[in-house]
Amino acid sequence: MPAIPVPVIAIEDLMDRYEVLLLDAYGVLVTRDGPLPGAAALVDALNRRGRPWYLLTNGAARLPENAARRYQGFGLAIPAERIITSASLLVPHFRAEGLIGKRCAVLGPADSLRYVELAGGRPVPAGEDFEVLVVCDQSGFPFLDTLDAVISRLFARIDAGLPVPLILPNPDLVYPTGRGFGITSGCIALVIEAALRLRYPNRPDLAFVRLGKPHAAIFEEAARRAGGGDMVMIGDQLETDIRGAAAFGIDSALVAGGVADVGQAAEGGVRPTWLLASLNPG
User: Fold this and answer.
1) Cα separation, 258 vs 237, whole angstroms
2) Residue 167 lies in a domain
3) Which residues pair with 201 in a beta bridge?
4) Residue 253 forms beta bridges with which residues?
5) Cα angle 268, 272, 277; round to 5
6) Of 41, 56, 58, 226, which sits 20 to 30 A from 31 (CA to CA)?
7) Cβ–Cβ under 8 Å, residues 259 and 174
8) Is there a domain that residue 191 lies in?
């Protein structure tokens, strides 16, 4: 049987239909180089609307206040209180897992280290002995030397029979850069997991705990802040934005032109509720 097309909806109809809008950042509103067409007009419309809306991002490289300043520099009037990052989930995770006060190797720039500090961890250089590994971002460190040091320390701890929690706030694998695509922290985690499987083939427990989309915690935080209401997730990735929304039991809208191929959405599998051809309201 031919695939059933995903219905197309205009952004203004989406805003009328749902009480709470959740938006991904990269591939929906911005690329690495600046805003996408329609992003500024959409943000302005959401602010005028007066209903809850949140930027739900797997990014773990910037604190909300620093991310807000960057978006505002792009002409997007996004306040820090509207930004929910995957790295903010480190606070409840560290508390629940008894990781407060632990020495943490943190891959990412300065804000990533600050996220771990706010969660109660003690960041240490990757070449030093650590008790927890947190992979936040693909930037902010010498790539090959850092990975070599991290894997060496991991092997030493595991060989000594010591526990080593592995945490990945951002499970994304790729993101749109504006000039193509780039890898993210999720790819780094896959490399580390492959090395662990090679050395410890009978240890399936040696895997990262993934906190961001498509997992439920970030959607739960959005629902908590919104205080109720019918929500929709607007994203460009089937495996994170759309799959996460479906698993959480809310509707979703796929933005054309992002990471996902629109044709994939119509062929089954991970399927959005709606297809958005444009972000421009009106």
Assistant:
1) 7
2) yes
3) none
4) 234, 274
5) 115
6) 226
7) yes
8) yes
The tens digit of pLDDT for each residue in 123-133 reads 999 889 999 99
The domain total for the chain is 1
The one-letter amino acid at 105: A
Q: Is 198 exposed, middle or buried (0-12, 13-18, 19+ CB in 10 A)?
A: exposed
pLDDT of residue 1: 43
C-alpha distances out from residue 182 to 32, 147, 150, Å: 10, 18, 22
The helix (H) or strand (E) run that includes residue 199 is helix 185-199
Closest to 237 measured CA to CA, from 49, 7, 56: 56
Output the CA–CA distances (angstroms, integers) from residue 13 to 17, 30, 164, 195, 223, in the order listed: 6, 22, 48, 48, 21
What is the CATH classification number for the domain harbouring 202?
A: 3.40.50.1000
User: Rounded to whole angstroms, how far apart are CA atoms 57 and 195?
Assistant: 28
Q: How many residues can be counted in the chain?
A: 282
Task: Tell whether the model's pLDDT for residue 4 goes beyond 80.
Answer: no
Q: Is residue 133 part of a domain?
A: yes
What range defines the domain where residue 143 resides? Answer: 88-210
Cα 142 to chain center, whole Å?
A: 22
